Amino acid sequence: KRPAGAPDRSLARKVTKVGVVGAGLMASQMALLFLRRLHVPVVLTDIDQARVDKGVGYVHAEVDKLAGKGRISPDEANRLKALVSGSLDKAAFADADFVIEAVFEDLAVKQQVFAEVEEHVSAEAILATNTSSLSITDMASKLKHPERVVGFHFFNPVAVMPLLEIVRAEQTDDATLATAFAVGKQLKKSSVLVKDAPAFVVNRLLTRFMGEVIKSVDEGTSFEVADKATEPLGLPMSPMILLQLVGSAVALHVSETMHGAFPDRFSVSENMKKFVAAGKTAVWQWDSTGAQT
Ligand code: CAA
């Protein structure tokens, strides 16, 4: 059955090569998923060689782990590893028909990335973004072919979380949207069409929820108590562990976007700002009053 709002699947174009801009946490997990499910060449780019190498290294290591667990044969592992490559140059995206970006959550940076990618791909190549909160319509607005832009929002861990938010920008055409749904299906995700509104649906809920937990810490509840207080809700992960998984810098960006859009409903935690500014990655580096240690 076609997902609600998805255009006729006969409009979908075949994807034969994938480009991934960024080789960080989400990008490298996405590269692995595309590789495993589409079996097509996947090229990762980033701003320096160390980042590119780390991204490709992650994909190779995960493929080896799958082979080690007997999920894929050693031959298959070698085939998959040969299909992934890294480059500093977006010219490596030539012939890619689906390019997804997962760079820093900043509109101007993402617009610049898409403008650069557009120089190297065909007019029909899809430009997808994994942004968790920014406007897809704004991201598309400066391009020669804005109709090929679509939101394609995964959740961490990408290999495990079934949901995919597909976001239609004002400019997105039916062929782009149909291709996005077809790729979502190939990736074995449950795709849903969501409105191009700040933080779409999932992060809108999650940011409000996490924001209230952190606010209680800002107000003086101990870190451990605030975290433990969510136990009766039966979540798969406590909020502070989830914060660590998502990354506090990403969470802060999303809460700032949401505060900008709905100042009466979303706040930005001062402790969280200090925490991110200090480059802390482990939530338990906060002391029990919420101050950084
Ligand atoms: N990366 C890859 N695979 C992972 C993983 C990771 N970080 N963590 C777990 N897995 C895999 C395991 O390898 C295992 O796979 P197999 O069964 O194939 O071996 C499977 O997941 C289950 O692992 P566990 O037995 O350790 O499972 P668990 O019961 O502890 O569940 C979890 C782990 C699925 C991550 C679960 O804790 C969970 O659902 N947590 C909530 C995650 C969540 O809410 N994510 C959304 C964050 S918001 C976001 O990402 C959006 C944004 O834009 C900010």
Structure in words:
- Helix 1 (25-38) crosses helix 2 (49-68) and helix 2 (49-68) runs antiparallel to helix 3.
- The mean pLDDT is 93.
- The chain starts with 17 loop residues before the first strand and ends in a 16-residue tail after the last helix.
- It has 2 domains: 9-194, 3-Layer(aba) Sandwich (Rossmann fold), CATH 3.40.50; 203-285, Orthogonal Bundle (N-(1-d-carboxylethyl)-l-norvaline Dehydrogenase, domain 2), CATH 1.10.1040.
- It is 43% helix and 12% strand.
- The chain is globular.
- It is of the alpha/beta class and 293 residues long.
- It contains 11 helices and 8 strands.
- An 8-stranded mixed sheet has the order 3-2-1-4-5-6-7-8, sandwiched between helices.
- The longest helix has 20 residues, at 49-68.
- It binds acetoacetyl-coenzyme A (CAA).
- Residues 132, 155-157, 159-161, 203, 206, 236-237, 242, 246, 250 line the site of acetoacetyl-coenzyme A.
